[in-house]
Design brief:
Length: 296
Amino acid sequence: MKDNFNVFALVVVKNEGDIIFDTIESATKWADKIFVIDNMSTDNTWEKLNALKDKYDNVILWGQYGGKFNEGLRQILYREYRGFSSENDWWCRLDGDEFYIDNPKDFLKNLPTDIDHVYNASFQYYYTEQDYRNELNLSDCAELNYDRLKWYKCNHSEIRFVKNKRTLCWPQEEGWPCNLLKAASGRIRLKHFQYRTLDQIKNRFLVRSREMSGDTFKHEIVSEEIWYKRRGFSLPDDEKLKKYRIVNSVDLSNSESYIFNDDELPKIIHVNFKKRVKCFVVALYMRLLNSFTFKL
């Protein structure tokens, strides 16, 4: 693939004030534009975002959204800013607490031209018993920084990049376009710091509760026993450790080589014949009729 393309990052964030500045600042090195919705954060996230906007010309704030979080919020950003894009540019889902190990521009430019979406390999950082004890012994938790965390497991993968094309169809309230045809066989690596301090973990569960986010985060709105079992972690005996999803480091890795086993990740979904027919029909609509009827 040619390297004369743009990458546009789509960010929806809520209460990530301790990490969002570093996340977006890191992304400015490879993203041509970073479009951001703040989901009415109650910490200093919005102030951090405005500081980023003032510092970097490629950081664009859509504004604040007061409703419940839903996956379709990124579609709002796409719809609002797709005028910046050209054929063969890329859209990236960037969460407010993650950093790419692989440079996305380098990864994408080496893909075959028929690839239109890419899955990630997410190295998920967990709070260990040692992290828990260290925090309890601190008099000032403001000293805590995410980069002190060392233990992870690469156990998650989902679509993170989608190629822009004239026939791209991204319906409202959907997390990604409906007519993606061919996934890359390789996965792009990133580090995900989802659990960083005890207060942040408590707030994370609150933000992702059904009351605030509906059923969007069903994978986290489960019992403690199911949460540990699904991830292959041993269940702590201490109730406080369970409450904060503290993980024994023997279940994790701290290697800086970031090697993952593809068989341990959710499978990359390849399009079957039925889906190909659907994508063909959608492409015809987008190419021939979309400008004259209800515009997607």
